[in-house]
Amino acid sequence: MKRTLPLQPTEAAKPSWLNQLNILGPGLLFAATSVGTSHLVQSTRAGALYGLALLLIVIVANAVKYPAFRFASDYFPATGTTLLEAYRRQGRWVLVAYLLITLSSLLFAVSALALMSAGLIKVVFALTLPTHWMALGLIAATSAVLIIGHYNTLERVTKFLVVIMMVCTLIATATIIPEIDWSSDNIQLLPTQLDIAGLMFVAALIGWMPVPLDASVWQSLWAKAKADNSEHPPTLGQSRFDFNISFVGTLLLAICFMLLGAGLMHDKGIELQSGSAAFSAQLISLYEAVFGSAAGPVIGIAALAIIYSSLLAIMDAFPRALSSLHRRWQNIPEDQDDHILNESDPFYVGTLVAMGAGAALTYQFFMTSLTSLIDMAATIAFITAPLIAYLNHKVITADHVPKACQPGGMMVMYSRFSIAVMIGFACAYLYLRFWLS
C-alpha cells in the first residue's frame, strides 16, 4: 500500500524563475475558478452600478480570505494529505457541514458558469439556439473532456488561458483609466444609498470574491493530483509561491474589471443586462470600446476561454471533493487509502451526470437569469465563509502539522482577525436582510 509522505518545507537550492513558473499549477487553477463569474460578471457589475464605491469592499473581501486560502495551499505539502483528511480528524460533523455547503453551491455554480459560457458562444458565433440548451450541451461536452483527459492537460490549458485574459484585461484597463472619475465623492466605503437589492449584491460580491472559501478544499485536492502526476512534487515554498502569485493576480484582475465597468458603463445611462447572452454582449462591448470593433471576436473568444476554463476546473473539483469526502466518511485515513481517483472512476462519472441533471432542473424550475443564479450561489458562500475559515485555521495549527510548516504569530493573528471580520459581515447581513427588511 502506497503511503503519501509529507513534503519537505525547505529546498536545498533556490530554483530558477523558469523552474518556479513550471511548478505553477493548483494556484492557477484557483485563479481560473476566481476569474470566472466573480470577476467577469460581479466586478464588472460593481463598477457599472456603483462606480468605485465598492473598490474597498473588493480589496477587503480578498484580504480577509487570504489566510484561509493560504493555509489550504500549505496543508498538503506540509502533511502529504488533503484538507478533507484534516476535516475527518475534526469529527464527522465537519464532513457533514462541508457536504451541505458543497451541495448548496454545486448546482448553482455549475449552472451559472455554463450559462455564461453559452451566452458568450451565442454572441461570438452569432448562434440562435436557446441559451439553456446550449449550456446543457456544454456541460455534457465538458464532462466528456474530463473523462477522457487528465490533470496535466487541465493544468497546461489553464495556464495559457489565464495569461491571455490577464494581458488583454491589463491593457484595456490602462487605456480606460483616464476616463474614470477619481474624485473623493466617487470613492466611498459604501454607496450612500443601498437598498435590499443592493445589499444582496454586496453580499454576493463578497461571497464569491475571489472565489467561495469551500474552494480551498479544491486547492488541496489539485495539489495532491499534481503530486501524483509529478516526479518531483512541489515543496512547501514552491506551493506557496504558486498560490501567492495567483492570489495577487486575481485581486489585480478584480480591480481591473471594476475599473472597466466604472469607466465604460457607470453614469452613462447603460442598462445592465441580466440575461447571459445580453450580458456577454455588453462585456465584449467594453473591450471593443477600447480596442475597436475588429477586436470584438478576439476578445469574445478570450473571455469564453477563461469562463470555460472556470467551468472545466469547477466540474473537475466537485467530483474530486465528493469522492474524497465519501472515502473520509467511511473513516478511512487518507494516508492508508489505496483508492486512487481517476476520471473513469464510477463515482467521478456519476457526479458529472448528477451535475448535468441538476443543471437541467435548475434551468427548468429556477430563474434562468445569469446574475440571479450567481447572486444565489454567492450569498450562500458569503454566509458559510466564517466556518470554512475557522476550520482551515484550526487544521493548519494542529499538533500533527510540523512546526516548521505552521504559520507564524503574525499570520495567526491575521487569520483570527479575518475570521472575526467575516463573522461580523455574515451577522450584519442576516440582521439587515431578515430583520430590517
From TrEMBL:
<keyword id="KW-0812">Transmembrane</keyword>
<keyword id="KW-1133">Transmembrane helix</keyword>
<feature type="transmembrane region" description="Helical">
    <location>
        <begin position="347"/>
        <end position="366"/>
    </location>
</feature>
<feature type="transmembrane region" description="Helical">
    <location>
        <begin position="411"/>
        <end position="432"/>
    </location>
</feature>
<dbReference type="GO" id="GO:0015086">
    <property type="term" value="F:cadmium ion transmembrane transporter activity"/>
</dbReference>
<protein>
    <submittedName>
        <fullName>Nramp family divalent metal transporter</fullName>
    </submittedName>
</protein>
<feature type="transmembrane region" description="Helical">
    <location>
        <begin position="133"/>
        <end position="151"/>
    </location>
</feature>
<feature type="transmembrane region" description="Helical">
    <location>
        <begin position="93"/>
        <end position="121"/>
    </location>
</feature>
<feature type="transmembrane region" description="Helical">
    <location>
        <begin position="373"/>
        <end position="391"/>
    </location>
</feature>
<feature type="transmembrane region" description="Helical">
    <location>
        <begin position="189"/>
        <end position="211"/>
    </location>
</feature>
<dbReference type="GO" id="GO:0034755">
    <property type="term" value="P:iron ion transmembrane transport"/>
</dbReference>
<dbReference type="InterPro" id="IPR001046">
    <property type="entry name" value="NRAMP_fam"/>
</dbReference>
<feature type="transmembrane region" description="Helical">
    <location>
        <begin position="48"/>
        <end position="68"/>
    </location>
</feature>
<feature type="transmembrane region" description="Helical">
    <location>
        <begin position="243"/>
        <end position="265"/>
    </location>
</feature>
<dbReference type="GO" id="GO:0005886">
    <property type="term" value="C:plasma membrane"/>
</dbReference>
<feature type="transmembrane region" description="Helical">
    <location>
        <begin position="157"/>
        <end position="177"/>
    </location>
</feature>
<dbReference type="GO" id="GO:0005384">
    <property type="term" value="F:manganese ion transmembrane transporter activity"/>
</dbReference>
<feature type="transmembrane region" description="Helical">
    <location>
        <begin position="286"/>
        <end position="315"/>
    </location>
</feature>
<keyword id="KW-0472">Membrane</keyword>
<feature type="transmembrane region" description="Helical">
    <location>
        <begin position="20"/>
        <end position="41"/>
    </location>
</feature>
